[in-house]
Amino acid sequence: MTHSDSKRPAESSWSDPAALALERIAAALEKLIPAAPETPDFEAADAFVWHAARSSLQPVNKVNRVEISLLRGIDRLRDLLTDNTERFARGFAANNALLWGARGMGKSSLVKAVHAEINDRLAGTLGFLPLKLVEIHREDIDSLPVLMGFMREVPYRFVIFCDDLSFDAEDTSYKSLKAVLEGGIEGRPQNVLFYATSNRRHILARQMIDNERSSAINPGEAVEEKISLSDRFGLWLGFHSCSQEDYLTMIFGYADHLGLAIDRPQLEHESLEWAITRGARSGRTAWQYIQDLAGRLGRAV
Predict the structure, then answer these.
(1) What is the pTM of this model?
(2) Where are the domains of the chain?
(3) Which CATH superfamily hosts domain 47-239?
């Protein structure tokens, strides 16, 4: 062996195919690592939808809402939620809110309308930043701590909104919601409120409560644990089926707002017949009739 040969670096014990295979394995493992969530741009919009799978907030530039002046028959509930939301937007103490009761009576419409009303009312106030509305889907409730983590250290104030919140027999995610709303070690951020709508006052299905009564060692304690979720909401707003008078007030209000040319007696007769065929008088039923009427009159709404 020559002197120059003795200084030549030893050949790697790994063959080229083995090195390539390791590189491919490393690349595949990197793809399995989830990407770090992007910091949301809260200036992009005043409303967002939370996508838990991607840990991202999708801006909503045009919210599907009705004007608050068109929500009839729920004046007291409207005022209570508006006052609570305005106090929160101004930086004062406010309560989580549960809007429960009859379907189609404007629970989710009220939340969205109040959000717009408060931003319009306080626009231009010194130091006021727009209130943000963030919708979270029922199936993503477990991701609330992640969502709140994005909000905790930013200057904006947020209303997290879950429409049609309910839990079925085998669903235990309500326990995580309880901890997030009140009682968790980290607590709800001061700049976050939680608004939910539900057809049930206690959110949980009645069979869940009945099952606990029949099978638990201490039925009273088990039931209390189940229904204590609704106690995390300091503001309860109950929506009930509307009277014929309230229903017609909604109909006339929509027709006047949209400028629909139809005689009042005909409007009253048609709208009542519409409600009878659907077996319910509600804000949703009234709006569906107005949409049908506007279409027959060649109008877009």
Answers:
(1) 0.78
(2) 47-239, 244-296
(3) P-loop containing nucleotide triphosphate hydrolases (3.40.50.300)
Q: Which two tokens stand for residue 120?
A: 């319009």
Nearest to 71 by CA among 131, 123, 111, 118: 111
Given a cut of 60, whether residue 11 has pLDDT beyond it is: no
Mean pLDDT of the 132-157 span: 91
- Give the whole-angstrom CA distance, residue 181 versus residue 28: 39
User: CA–CA separation, 217 vs 246, rounded Å?
Assistant: 47
133, exposed or middle or buried, with CB in 10 Å at 0-12, 13-18, 19+? buried
Helical (H) or strand (E) element with 100? strand 97-101
Q: Is the dihedral of CA 53, 59, 61, 67 positive or negative?
A: positive
Which of 254, 250, 263, 247 has the alpha carbon at shortest distance from 294? 254
Distance of CA 130 to the CA centre of its chain: 18
Residue 205: strand, helix, or coil: coil
